[in-house]
Request: fold
Amino acid sequence: MSAKSAAAAVRPAATFLEAWAVWMRAQSMSERTVDSRLGLVARVARRAGVQPTELSGLDIAEHLADPALSPGTRQTYFAAMRAWVGYLQLVGVRTDDPMRTLRPPRAPAWEPRPIETEHLAALLAQPLRRRTRMMVLLAAYQGMRVSEVARVRGQDVDRLAGFITVVGKGRRVRRPPLHDVVLEAAATWPREGPWFPGRGTGEHVRAGSVSDTISDLMTRAQVPGTPHALRHWYATTLVEQGTDLRTVQVLMGHSSLATTQVYVRASTALARAAVARLPRVA
Reply:
């Protein structure tokens, strides 16, 4: 055993999780990703009854085999565990690779799942608290993720020029135009500080809080889907109104056009119009 490995052997496992968190932040990963990965590794270790640094391939496989996990979640967890093992190898804590015998889970067959425009109208017709209504408007009319909604500050909203600054995944910044309905609603909101502060923290609420708020509203209004379906509605409706995919990609903050296409449901009306334009030969 090298001096580096010997030193690693006597350090508490929790120290390596803390160091991994610092390392991930140094790679410009979001706090949401850092927290999610740390929580996952801790859960897998508790379930297996071992230290996080001692997880075996079987321990990881048993967690990934949980039937309650969706294909997408299983794929995300696999990537997170591979990142953890890779970090342990990088710093000399492990020389083996417990992930070696595990194959990446099959990618889920993603399909667009926008809510219907009638469902959005039903949500906004409910008796809503002021903050709940704004959360729905930002998700639907600005196409924002729940994590992006949670972080909105007054200074992000340029009322004069009609733009909102959004910091998305990978800390990518975009400035989509404000829809009139959001601009009108913003007139009575603070010009500084978080729009959705956490209780007693002075900081913004968690993304999960925004998701729970909109989910509860959808349940009350008997609207099917998830809060993310509002973002799908944004992309799909833009395309149905004639916006080209490249512009939608920019508005959504996607790095790949292929990702944008996943969000856009083919319009039945546009499909019929397209078929009707085929030349009649027979």
The chain has a mean pLDDT of 86.
